[in-house]
Amino acid sequence: MRMVYSVPGKPRLQDRWRAISLSEGQQGIHEGARHFLTMNGKHRPDLYETQKVFFQEAYRSGKVGWPRTGASRLVLSALEKGYLPSRCRVLEIGCGEGRNLSVLQRHGCRVVGMDYVLEPLRSARNLVDRNLPLIQGDLLSLPFRDGSFDAFLDWGVFHHLRRSEREQYPLWVSRLAVPGAVLLLGAFSEKFRHHPDEVRRRTFVRHRGHYDVFFTRERFSVALGNRWKLLWSGEEDQGDGLSYYRLGIFRYEPPATDASG
């Protein structure tokens, strides 16, 4: 029997995605393709395989290099400025352990959390309301109908994509966006360092099994192409003298259709 995941007022997943029952011990986490490496039967690049292993081990060990609690300044700024009205439909891409999900849910947003690593979703399940959908899924094969969301949050995924995938990213998100939707994006600043003595000659680096891209203010402002207009930008740091991030709120402005037909 095919299982289709659906929640009233929430986007419906495609039939190929399997919903895990609570009796299977996953506590309401819905799993998509089991492997981030496969899409339409094709093997994915080794980069994303090693990257997934890196994040799995980081969450299992508890030794992560990113914030685990407290909402990002990006989310708080969007709420303060009115870009995320109550009842808006929000997809968080790479929701991790749910530090932003809980804040959005309390604000009244209808939120879906997605991550391609299962471990943090287990933690998020204990943090957010039981009815908030959590999905183990793949950014490159998003399982939602066109126009499903009013807003998107990506704090920490975009900067782990290679150029070919970054160029496709606006198209993937645009398909799911209603006109005027907003995207909250957080990514590594060019000031970010993995350690105090790090010297980089390029805008990207492979570090401990994962791929990192770093953005200047100018580069970040146009990272999503000409269909996503930057409305607000800022910075955030962890106070350690190393971890700096670019923040941006972008609005989707689809091209005008030809009225003449």
Automatic annotation (TrEMBL):
<dbReference type="GO" id="GO:0032259">
    <property type="term" value="P:methylation"/>
</dbReference>
<protein>
    <submittedName>
        <fullName>Class I SAM-dependent methyltransferase</fullName>
    </submittedName>
</protein>
<dbReference type="GO" id="GO:0008757">
    <property type="term" value="F:S-adenosylmethionine-dependent methyltransferase activity"/>
</dbReference>
<keyword id="KW-0808">Transferase</keyword>
<feature type="domain" description="Methyltransferase type 11">
    <location>
        <begin position="91"/>
        <end position="184"/>
    </location>
</feature>
<dbReference type="InterPro" id="IPR013216">
    <property type="entry name" value="Methyltransf_11"/>
</dbReference>
<keyword id="KW-0489">Methyltransferase</keyword>
<dbReference type="InterPro" id="IPR029063">
    <property type="entry name" value="SAM-dependent_MTases_sf"/>
</dbReference>
<dbReference type="Pfam" id="PF08241">
    <property type="entry name" value="Methyltransf_11"/>
</dbReference>
<keyword id="KW-0949">S-adenosyl-L-methionine</keyword>
